Records
---
Amino acid sequence: MRAFLPAYEMETPRDLAAALGRMASEPGVWKPFAGGTDLMVLLEAGKLPHKKFLNIWNLQELRGIEASAEHVTLGALTTYAEVQRHEILAREFPLLCRAAAETGSVATQNRGTLGGNIANASPAADSPPALIVYDAEIEIVSAGGARWVPYDSFHSGYKKMNLRPEELIRRIRVARSAAGWKQYFRKVGTRRAQAISKICFAAAARVEAGRIADVRIALGSVAPTVLRAVRAEQILRGQQPGVAALQAAQNALGAEIAPIDDMRSTARYRRNVARNLLAEFLEVLAG
Amino acid sequence: MPERARKIRVSCVVNGSEASFEAYPLARLLDVLREELKLTGTKEGCGEGECGACSIEMDGALVNSCLVPALQAQGAKIRTIEGVAIGGSLHAVQQAFITHGGAQCGICTPGMILAAVNLLARHPQPDDTQIREGLSGNLCRCTGYMKIFESVVAAVRRAETRA
């Protein structure tokens, strides 16, 4: 059933301070509303439980992409389209650009934001695995101050995150340390364009003298949250990307993921494909 | 009595003319365009951002109008299918859809044309892959994809011949 529109309020704060002030004065009452690509779908389905929103789409403090020697910092309202157009991101962060290009359609990419993708907290989101591979940190702000937190411990369970009701994600920064690493991204969905993932795999490795000196692997849609495959990484470090290392790493990966059967796929399929994507990643490293 | 949101007044520019309407903040821009502004060329397909039938341009960017709340149209420059032809003269993409049979039942057509026109604004001479990607967010249930694709290819060639 469609939503009853008069039940929903939305206000436009004049700046970030005003938005945070509103959120602090009535914690949990006002929620941020950015590009609407998730919230409007829930609204239309009559499944949007929250009723009061702050329109943050025009807040300049949440926009822009800046590069320093060590990081690239993206405002939470950076859209998927903006990610793809950015020169440094295109050159050094191909996983993030691929994730952005494979999320929704052109129209979705013009409205969907990185901050929204994080705060919507879906385990099937496509930018989180790439963000984890790039050691992302996120800046969380409230009227009381700001704090940077590592992204890989931000999601605490299915649709749960370490974000208090009066807090907002302001920026995301990714480390430039993976430039020059071999990088691999693959999203598996029903259709090449604008399908929601059955499984999403992002990984990068530094290969020296034929051995994997360092490696980071993250997966979407195989656990209650985006998952960093620390056990598989541990096994691969120091190894040659060959058959022996692959089998051990596949077994480790199988033990740390927890896929389920749902409307998009089955646990069995996801398990098999996760192993196969790991194999393809190692082929890239060996090649 | 539960709290009720009031309708708000939104002013924007639609197809080059000032427009103003009243709507609930989270009303879909799609419904406002069709019901308040009587611009019924924009169609509703899925209503959940999957099919692209309701595509419009907002500040130059292609968006699904079913996912835009009315409040966020404040101050925006909007172009719908009604604003694609200039005067009595069809856009090259529109003409190509007619010549090459790119429209069948017509529900997806306004969105397809907006997607193609927007693509040409970003990439005046797109290759085949760019055309396919540019149209990939628009579904056609008459399965007329090849004719739609060929229409856009023809529009690009026509533009090239003219240049």
---
Amino acid sequence: MSHAPTPSQTVGPFYGYALPFPGGNEVAPAGHPDTVTVHGYVLDGLGAPVPDAIVETWQPAPDGSRAGLPGSLRHDPSSGKVIGRNGVDFTGFGRAPTDAAGHWFVRTLRPGGAPYLCAAVFARGLVHHLYTRVYLPDLLGEDGGQEAAGDPLLGSLDAGRRATLIATRTDPRTYRFDIRLQGDDETVFLEFS
Amino acid sequence: MTARGLPAHPLPDGLSQQEIDAEVARAQAAAEPGAHHPPRDYPPYRSSHFRHPHRSLIPVRDPEAVELSGPAFGVTDVTALDRDLTAQHDGEPLGERITVTGRVLDRAGRPVRGQLVEVWQANASGRYAHQLDQHPAPLDPNFTGFGRCLTDDDGGYSFTTVKPGAYPWRNHTNAWRPAHIHFSLFGTSFSQRLVTQMYFPGDPLLPYDPVIRSVTDQAARERLISAYDHDLSVPEWSLGYRWDIVLDGPCATWTEEEGDA
């Protein structure tokens, strides 16, 4: 660890023409029958939606592979335009800017070998991105109780804090996960070292 | 006041540069000495106020954490032209043509190979090709200001662009951002993700800018400033800047060779 790291800086307000790309939040191969939607709002310390945030997700493939595959932002070499994923490979990477209402979504497949999606949140006003996890309750067992306690991270948190990391399954194919940047019910954010 | 003694409201509109400078000095005095990254609660950058967590981050030391792996990118994800921001339109953009070159390394000094580097910036007049940037500077029909490339086997990246202009913003009265290029970087693990900004040496606006000053340690701040490198300048064509990037955070300890086994 001899090299000092380059500091983080805010993503600022003007990434919108640069970082988002067509199909960035369509992680599941188009038309895949097991596709699920994970969605929610990014909210600030006043409970107001954050319309200039970007949520990135990373996850294992359904077979548990963590190697990822290229092709999240395939380009047409003749026009230079993004032409989207190839509909076959599961790249594991999603990029979801919030809309004007502060809402984000990814359509994906459930991860294999781990009960969660990894998420990184970037926003104007946030000088260093934040990591969190989106646990899918059905992957923790139907009640989410005992199995949640067996997960090293969830098991280390009290019930109230733990609940901020577990998505709400609103129908068999839809999970709601709000990200609260600040406040009494603020989301658990993580650091890796 | 909150429990932690922070102001319960953001700093008000209309503060002078002098008042912001005083806030910068206060934040710097309160900061952890030698911190590599900016504190997320940084009052001089007013829009940080309601957008940072009040609770401590939870450390994850689990060797099975998915974050120790990360997304892959490849030849289908970029085209050769994506690294040349001056070649994306029919005509040449206005401004001072520059190249920005460097290496992406991890904290052990190992090159980060085959990973995605994305950049975005204002044009030479300081205007972004973004609908919300309406300040009175001209758009350039020949400049969008977005590029990407993959790092090579040595961790190297290179972009050709024009030097961005400074631009005003509304953090305080007479607030101006120094010229900068936004960078987005991926490492070998998701836990190494970095979004940051590269600055230019000798920019007179650097001492006044609460964004670069959010990095409270001077040595860390200097790591955000590129170096003019005369050997990178091309005669009668472009000026060269060098900027190396070191990604923080752990990564999986396996090598590609071991991973293939």
---
Amino acid sequence: MRSFALHAGIVLALFALQFVLPAYHHVNAARIMVYAMLAIGYNILLGYTGLMSLGHAMFFAAGAYGAGLAVHWLDFGPIAAFATGSGSGLALSLLAGLFLVRTTGVAFLIVTLMLSQAFFLSILYFNGITLGEQGIVLSNTAAVEAFGLRFHLSDPALKYNLALLAFALSLFVSLWLVRSPLGRVLIAIRENEPRTRMLGYNTFAYRYLAITMSGTIAGLSGALYCLLFSYVGASFASLQYSTLPLLWALLGGAGTIVGPLIGTGLMFYLIDISSGVTSSYLLVVGAALLVLTLWFPKGIAGAVRSRWLPWLP
Amino acid sequence: MAAISLLKVRDLSRHYGGLAAVSNVSLDVAKGEVRAIIGPNGAGKTTLVGMICGRTTPSSGRIEFKGQDITGAKSWNRVLLGIVYTFQVASIYRNLTCYENVALAAQRREINVVMAQEKVVSAAVLKALGRVGLLSDCHRLAGVLSHGHQRLLELAMALALEPELLVLDEPTQGLAPSEIAAFCDLVREVAQTATVLLIEHNLQVVLELAGRITVMDQGTVLAEGSPEDIERHPAVRRAYLGQ
């Protein structure tokens, strides 16, 4: 109950934040919430199932391209495009999962990396459709008709609240998941998979389910990102977008529900501020990560949990 | 054998390259009995029960449980049929609480794991922990328990799965004499509802608990009978008791 209250409080605080943030940070916050969804999806695998992926860019990009291509080539409206994007993320997760479920540990990391690179290179190869590196700028996502009203996705308030809505849903889905009997099995797989099989669980099926949920949430985040910020490019499928959710989850605390949000927000502003000061801002990011791994190996929320709040999910 | 056999093993073999860990073993375990398997190190006891539980794939032979051929069944499906294995070296989730350890087993008994009701699971967990006397350690991490208590936790996990055939692989290894006595009482109690297959080095425990004893040596069955028969059997005395 108190963990539900805590997370509801976080969502309420984010809702209230939009009324006090200046325009620049207002957009940043929306971006962070969408990215945090990617981190939440990622964390289901890393934090709760014990599988480290280096290929979540493909799920993010599948969502983003599913939505972006539908708008660009087929003139889909935002809602239909969002559905297409999410469906693409789900389809890719189901497909990639067939291969990924056969691996764990380092092999899992390498296979995710390879599949993701193959996806990235395919986007470049089919540049007649995807427009390659240059990407697609969506110009006609103008309006959504609903309840007899017209909404404009370019409206910052709508952007913020859609991002918040999707983020909150992902947050509560992951909270429900880890506290459910299903989450208990995933954690058991993380801790000791052979033992879990001898308790009567088909661990392959459970890992497949975890990969699918993780990839689908990453795909949702990609679809939403493309529609809210009107752009999709090949860089979305690049290695950088696979390492970022890993860093966000580790920084915030892998295996915690709020960790991904904390990690994403901090890293976003760390890059934002340091890149304003120096062009070698990655040095600052690297130093921050060193400090983190040395003194907070469980991430921020993980450290808070082990020191003060043992009940934090 | 008048009683219905719960477990039927026929000509079971497992070869590792040229080495026959188990060769042509046949075994019948009747419902409700406590069967001990004894034999020197490397006799193939753990390989044999590994094949019965599905951890090891047999090279040849056939395993039947409740009249059903389970030779090719996956280990997790055998657990659902009622074959539950406890590990030789206590294999628990050290970073989880005792409650969570047993809850994983208890919720598996629900038809649909995802929809398992926490109330039902919780009751089963407390019952299993109560049976082994670990109720007060419910919310402690499993990793901080003493070795003896970790073995009891392992047994609690097995009990929460409501086994029909409980396979205990050297359960008293590393226990203090006082703990062994309590453990024997517990196994006797469990045996009232389940069939027990016990691999054990401690002969005193075996003679005290087992209704029948199977003696293995170098991958084959050397002798089988009641504890009195086995104690008198000349080949057994030579090979195993060293007399």
